[in-house]
Design goal:
The protein is mainly α. Helices cover about 65% and strands about 5% of the residues. The chain is built from 21 helices and 2 strands. α9 runs antiparallel to α11 and α14 runs parallel beside α16.
């Protein structure tokens, strides 16, 4: 009996047992169950059992297959049946419990999808949207914004009523920790809305928050993701806002994002797409007599496409997208041959990683530290790396903490 037959017959106990013992080889078939599981979740008689099956599949998923899961969930958001929409929101929220790291990275797109669902005409759907917001935002670990998450969610659920209040809360927030993908994913939609408001006061508040956050964006991948989103609204702020102070904040934020994002590798237009990767895997499997279903090859191609689109050259990630799905009857050499060849072809047109010549030199110090003067935090979780034999200068305006830093270094008093 197939997975689908057991689900249609409400044979949840046997299905649970099989899924518990399943491996990633079974993932393509289990993925096909998700739309049917959503139907079952929408049936109040089987809702709890179907939800448990869905969560079990999610808990065993390959993180590199996240896009395949999200395509099914997001497609269900457009269903004509409100119970399917609600079921999709229930399953989406469960990702926070079972795949925290994956949700953190994908939170920007998830937030945008939930904002669309917040305006649904059915109260059951909007109520579940709020629950889903809360579940997904529970993965955010930036202590600077944890306390303001409820205000931001209120603004997304009822923008007319709560947007200004949320912007006020954000302006009063001190950003000290690094601003990462999950933080910007939550806040950028409300900030872009604030920058588009007619009231200059709303634009000013949004611009100040963007300015405070951009100072703490250190990851080039995060900056490159949000640069094209924030660039037009910051340029509009520079052109339209009458307050010189705010125009300068917009310009500085734009410059910071451009500088940090420029360090990220550009994605080549010639990278292999899903169909090409699918065909490549098929070719090399045929060479070593590995046979798979079409569904499996397509699944591998989609997983690998996520790597090419993110310029990921890491061998272990390519291996994780291919090896678990290939039945090699214990012959790891054949699988390794396929992975090696697909990896070589797959990364051929990717942008080479930038090489820092200092990486080969001996470290004198390589640490993170925090520095405060009285009640003022000067540096927080700041990376500090110096090499043996090199000369360094320390530059900054008066009061930035140059002397305090040097005294702390000399006295061995750095916290970190």
């Amino acid at each position: 009996m197939s997975f689908l037959d057991m689900l249609e017959n409400n044979d949840f106990e046997n299905l649970k047992t099989i899924i518990q013992n399943a491996t990633l080889v079974d993932e393509p078939q289990l993925l096909q169950l998700l739309p049917h599981i959503l139907e079952k979740i929408g049936d109040h008689k089987n809702s709890d059992s179907a939800k448990a099956i869905g969560e079990m599949i999610i808990s065993k998923m390959n993180p590199h297959a996240m896009k395949l899961y999200m395509d099914i969930i997001y497609e269900s958001f457009g269903s004509m049946k409100w119970v399917i929409k609600k079921a999709a929101l229930i399953l989406l929220g469960s990702f926070a419990k079972h795949q925290q790291k994956v949700v953190q990275y994908n939170l920007p797109n998830m937030i945008l999808r939930l904002i669309d669902m917040a305006s649904d005409v059915k109260k059951d759907v909007t109520a579940q949207t709020r629950v889903c917001f809360e579940e997904l935002c529970s993965v955010i670990d930036n202590v600077d914004i944890i306390k303001i998450i409820p205000s931001v969610i209120n603004a997304y659920m009822e923008p007319v009523k709560y947007t200004e209040e949320a912007l006020d809360t954000l302006v009063a927030t001190s950003f000290i920790n690094e601003v990462d993908m999950q933080t910007l994913g939550l806040l950028v939609p409300i900030l872009t809305k604030g920058m588009r408001e007619k009231k200059v006061a709303a634009k000013r508040r949004a611009a100040l928050v963007i300015g405070n956050m951009c100072k703490l964006v250190n990851d080039p991948r995060t900056a490159s993701y949000f640069y094209p989103i924030l660039k037009p609204i910051l340029e509009r702020g520079i052109d339209e806002i009458s307050i010189e102070e705010v125009r300068k904040v917009c310009q500085h934020s734009l410059d910071t994002l451009l500088r940090v994002s420029s360090e990220a590798a550009e994605i080549s237009e010639n990278v292999m797409k899903c169909d090409e990767l699918d065909a490549t895997v098929r070719k090399y499997c045929a060479e070593v007599d590995i046979v798979c279903e079409d569904l499996t090859f397509n699944h591998i191609g989609k997983c690998c496409e996520g790597l090419t689109l993110s310029n990921n050259r890491k061998y272990e990630d390519w291996e994780a997208c291919i090896k678990p799905y290939l039945p090699a009857d214990g012959n790891d050499e054949r699988v390794k041959t396929v992975v090696d060849k697909v990896h070589v072809d797959g990364i051929a047109n990717l942008t080479p990683d930038k090489v820092d010549p200092e990486d080969e030199e001996e470290d004198l110090c390589n640490a993170q530290f925090s520095l405060a003067y009285g009640t003022r935090v000067l540096l927080h979780q700041t990376p500090f790396r110096v090499k043996v034999g090199r000369k360094y200068g320390l530059v900054g305006p008066n009061g930035a903490g140059k002397s305090t830093l040097m005294k702390s270094i000399a006295g061995g008093n750095l916290q970190g």
